[in-house]
Amino acid sequence: MKYLLVIAILSLTGCAPTLSVEPLTGRTYAPTAEVDILDAWPETRKFVEIADITARADQESVAAIVDRAKTAGADAVVFGPPYHYGDVVILFAGGNIGGHLAGGINTVPLTRIRARLIKYLP
Questions:
Q1: Domain ranges in the chain?
Q2: Going by C-beta distance under 8 Å and a sequence separation of 6 or more, which residues neighbour residue 28?
Q3: Is the distance from CB of 105 to CB of 93 less than 8 angstroms?
Q4: Where is the signal peptide (predicted)?
Q5: Which one is predicted more confidently, 7 or 45?
């Protein structure tokens, strides 16, 4: 039983990124081959917001968001800053590692990113 939590958490780390996608329009667009990666709203171009996406803050999620943007027909992805939304407590079962007793509790912060998919207007 004490290994169950550790096994569950380790199995989750190998999964594909989970994106939470909220469409902001009912309109669909043809897929795009490339998207601009932005960290602020474009000041010189008009645009419409297509979708809001949140995901775990890591490189795999960033790549998955960019892929989703291309599929959705977005011209750009506006990434917001990462934000802390909770902690996971990992319990390490006791054991003997190199002649030392191992075990304890470790807290890992959970961080998410938010991105908006946008389509430039003519």
A1: 19-94+110-120
A2: 73
A3: no
A4: 1-20
A5: 45
